[in-house]
Design goal:
With about 200 residues, the protein is an alpha+beta fold. About 25% of the residues lie in helices and about 35% in strands.
Amino acid sequence: MVETYQRRSALAHFSLNALANQKTDGAGITLGESAHRAIINIRGDANDGAFSSAVKTATGCDLPLVANTVAAAGDVRILWLGPNEWWVVGTDARRQGLIDGLRQAFAGQHTNVTDVSESRTVITISGPAARDVLARGLSNDLHPRAFGPGQCLQSSLSRTNVLLHQTDDTPSYEIYVLKSFADYLWRWIGLIAEDFGMSVKAD
């Protein structure tokens, strides 16, 4: 794990806090970075009641069993990645507690817990034009009849592998992306946003 004093967000070089103070009336989208999110990959048998119960015990959150859905409890989210794979997501302050709690709850079970927090950052995008911007680089149907709050999907956004989670009807989305691709994806979104107007939100 990286020492706290050495940590730097993947997009820090864009000085997002300074950009957030710039006046941008009528912007179609608002972009931001939610850095240092706790992201814990878990694997297990969804049909095993003991596994689901252990997840609930450790996180307070039900395990989502329907494809591409998200379950939530307090500040914890669990995102469905596959039939036997999920991400447990929370604040950085809760990271170690979630990891320890999951490993303890899974004792004796055939499961896996892996901390992948440092590999990714989260780009947030919201506003009336957010869906239109994403549609320029995403092949998936984001129309409300097909994709809405409480859903997630893994896809390629402008040739970049991402996990997309819609959080509300604004619409607002969280884009989980490898840190090594965050700079490219931020610049690509900014280029597309020239057609709609863009503001920046401080973390």
